[in-house]
Amino acid sequence: MVILESRFHHIKALLARLRLDSSARLVVLVDKDGQQIAVHGELGDLDTTSLASLAAGNVAATGGMARLIGENEFPTLSHEGEKESIHICVIGRVLLLVVFDDRSSLGLVKLRSKQLSHELARVFAEIEKESAAARANSSLPFNGITDEEIDSLFSPA
Amino acid sequence: MTFINYASREINCKIVYYGPGLCGKTTNLQFIYDSTAAQARGKLISLATEADRTLFFDFMPLELGTVRGFKTRFHLYTVPGQVFYEASRKLILKGVDGVVFVADSQEERMDANIESLYNLEENLRTYGYELMKLPYVLQLNKRDLPNVIPTDELTTELQRKGEPVIEAVASTGAGVFDTLKAVAKQVLTELRKA
Ligand SMILES: Nc1nc2c(ncn2[C@@H]2O[C@H](COP(=O)(O)OP(=O)(O)O)[C@@H](O)[C@H]2O)c(=O)[nH]1
Ligand SMILES: [Mg+2]
Q1: Which of A107, B22, B40, B61 is 20 to 30 A distant from B75 in Cα terms?
Q2: pTM of the prediction?
Q3: pLDDT tens by residue, A96-112
Q4: Chain B: which residues have CB within 8 Å of chain A?
Q5: What is the set of domains in chain B, with CATH numbers?
Q6: DSSP secondary structure string, B102-119?
Q7: What is the CATH number of the domain that holds A119?
């Protein structure tokens, strides 16, 4: 997947809006393979890389359960804790993850996530086209990378 | 699937360590974790049972450095080896960019190696990947044990396509970084022709 700079800023703006509208602590966008795409909100020392990977694992596992009982996928997942909670909304090949506390509620987060999901689906349809185009016209940054450049990653500076 | 972000100038790739139960996959990651500077790696997440067997996966992000202004990050995953974890094993392979097959060199684990390798090819195929086309390394682990099969015999039996074969003792770290380097290099080389 290739994310161009302008798209990234657009996504960040959408996440910022969702966070505000849902009074959430944090909003993370994750690729279904577990890569974090963008994050917005009160990060603190939260390890969002691990959160992204575990969220993708969680969605993959519940998706597996869904198929066993004859469903295709569970479109949303939520986990409610004593103080902090998580809501995940599956939008095509990305996951919209919202972390919230008692400043918000599951109902509100669900509603706002759903409202944003249509716009995010459109954005990711564009990203998919752009990724395919970048591959097709060989404009990726590593094109023509040399063995020396690759080796340099492994030799201590 | 390799993930390229032009705004944060990052490239992320996913590498999966595959192999039979107890062959040393988690030990590979643990060694990489223990010998990498804190700023180059994230947390090592282990979803394990009480008996310390990998239940779902181990995960660790690792930053290698910068090429052409892009931070290169590898997300390392292991799969659970036991046969009954088939469903979760399959899930981890989704979107994989490179695979390390960790073979257990002990004589009595030969059948388990063959079964796991066959299982890998089958699971890859369900996602439309071909092992033959994927960046891939074969690690022969536990070379320190007394009852191991000679490496040339293991290679004949397990090598699929002329992939690099690396002898290792993951518990002491021997061969662990050579393995990672061999697979990472292939993944990056793939990006050259992308
Ligand atoms: N002697 C020896 N033991 C090893 C080696 N690599 C791993 N082990 C041990 O084998 C056991 C299983 O390793 P683990 O990494 O948990 O296997 P996994 O199921 O593939 O994740 C552990 O007790 C390790 O310490 C090795 O190269 N030599
Ligand atoms: Mg393990």
Answers
A1: B22
A2: 0.91
A3: 999 999 999 999 999 99
A4: 1-8, 11-12, 14, 42-43, 45, 47, 56-57, 59, 61, 64-65, 67-70, 72, 75, 87-88, 91-92, 94-95, 181, 184-185, 188-189, 191-192, 194
A5: 3-193 (3.40.50.300)
A6: EEE-BGGGHHHHHHHHHH
A7: 3.30.450.30
